[in-house]
Fold these 2 entries.
Entry 1:
Amino acid sequence: MELLYLSLIFATVIIVLLFKRPLYQAVLCALIVCCILFGISPTKAAELTLKVLTQWSSLSVLVSLYLIVLLQHILEKRDQIMLAQKDLDSLFHNRRINASIAPIFIGLLPHAGAMILCSDIVKDATDPYLEPEEQSFVTSWFRHIPESTLPTYTGVLLMSTLSGISLNRFVPLMIVPVIVLFLIGYIPFLRKIPKRSDSTDDKNKLSCLSDLIKHLWTLICVLILILFFKLSVVLSLLIVIAVSYFVYSFSLSEFLSIIKESFVVKLLLNSFMVLVLKEFISYTQVLTLLPDFLSKLPIPAYMVFALLFFFGGIISGSTAIIALGTPIAFSAISGGVPLMVLLMCMTHGASQISPVHVCLVVACEHFNIPITSLIRKTVPYTLLFCLFAIVYYNILVLFGF
């Protein structure tokens, strides 16, 4: 009966999202259902909710998200990502690199509005060699590659927090999937276009490389501090933001304005509600029943969750399925970092064909095509990547990662 209750809680989130309501409202409805089904009193519910703000493992996720948005606004104020794209063009004079690497760099910042800039770059690099459907695919596919891996994205942060898997173990194992994502987009599409771009900038290559690093130093430093110095995401971001204040010569009033602008209520509220739901489900102890249940199914447990994350990601979006599914998956399977790699890959693949993914809508509007055309174009490549993810998971397990 408890597992049926868990299914009803899960279904509540999906149903509310299907009515195009915000994630925090869907989770709020799920919390109410959880309280009713499991008999959680108002006092206990308030205690569990407050725990998110008093327990650093949960609160740090909210602080990290705020700091990531703050860093994003700092870079936008000084046009650093746009300048990095120009450095790439000057460095390589290569249409294929402009259409792939430039969107990846822009994708380092988690903002749907970045799709507009990516679309312009891809269109400029691929006209007249690719059709609008192909251009929209290239834009979306390459722009979202960082979303599968980097801790500047909500999904990666959430899954790391909910699973207990450290980012410095996860990110290195995602290098191979990132390369596969790149090749899946590059081989069938970008090889159609000529390499040489129309750029006439003949700057010294070493100077272009130096400028590229200069414009991306903030993001590079965050990753180095996390992966090599093993600092927390919060501390890494705080250090880089503090240094950038002086490097970019912000006035105090300008910086205070950025601090205020970076407080995105909807993002923080969505994440807060997700963390509260995690506390409620943990309190019910229903997750302890899953291993025995899954052992009776005719397919391996990891495939159950791979399919759950894939179809759940298509229906409800990556953040929702990660929030709901991660505690369940890691309670049911002692999968460690290979399981996190698999589930992130499946979720990433699902997000590329999800009709609730706002970036797809932006890309389709820019290239004036229906979203069904982009999804239809993307489905075979997403399935190919998910098949790779399943094979890769088994290889990681085989070699004891």
Entry 2:
Amino acid sequence: MSALAETIAIQGTVLRHVLGLDLAPAAARLEGAERLWLVGTGTSEHAARLGAAMLASAGFDAQSSSAAGFDAAGRLAPGGPAGDGSAPMVPRLGPDDALIVISHTTETAFARCVREDALAAGARLLTITGEGKDWPEAIAAAPPERSETYTASYLAALLVFARLTVALGGEEWTADDLAALPGLVEGAGVEPLAVEAPPRLTVLFGAGPAAVTAREGALKLREASRVLAEGYETEYLLHGSAVPLTSDDHLIALDPGGDPSGLTASLADAAEREGIPVARLDPPPDLHPLLAQFPLTVRLQSLASRWADRQGIDPDTVILGAWADPSLWSLGAPQGAG
């Protein structure tokens, strides 16, 4: 069994650990902040996007960005917009701003750079990392990932944000709602998704929070099983991106019934009329749309693991060849750092 499969299987246990963490000091650090900025890279950027949506539900001015985009926007035009639409408006960070950096390894170059800038500016700093790291402000949310296809650390970060939202006055869900998530995740991990890898392209799409899960699911499929996969916001898929799709492709519609506009379900129907296979993936009923992303994500993680196993691909060693060149991974690191 791959480390990926083993990690997917223990995610309920990891989430129960997160439920037991003392987050009161972290919540106190954020309380009263004028703006919250959440940054991360890759899977951690997806966690930042959903985390910002969670904290916004508690009344915070919360925005998310990739770590590289946040760094670039600040360097191009400190205190103003980047100018090219690639990142949100970035302020000169100060004591009334809070920056939350998500970096499981604490080694991601741009995440380290953004953290250093926040420390220099005297901003309120909070980080979410794996266990055993040396950032003193960190919430150590998950054990070290053993597979390069990250899974448990992602859900652990999301649960940290969901708990912080409650601690900071959010009323969209309760502590009891969060306590049910480990069991839902365990159930989702053993619920097979009857989708086979298509001859050409797998496209995942959803609205609102499900759009983030579509992108995260596509990333897992690409990493673990080396298939071509893309994730889209439903409206974006409609406006041109669906044009080249054929019967050699396969669409996965995420939570079509949860899209209040009906566009996700309607687009899935249109794809079938074009002869394109479509799977519809629904979360358990009566979950808040943001919490619904937990079981949806696990089902896509499990699909990626299954596809990797069927094709005899190692899902645990992902970054190979020229992509693994250390010089690429050090770009954007704080000055004077390796």
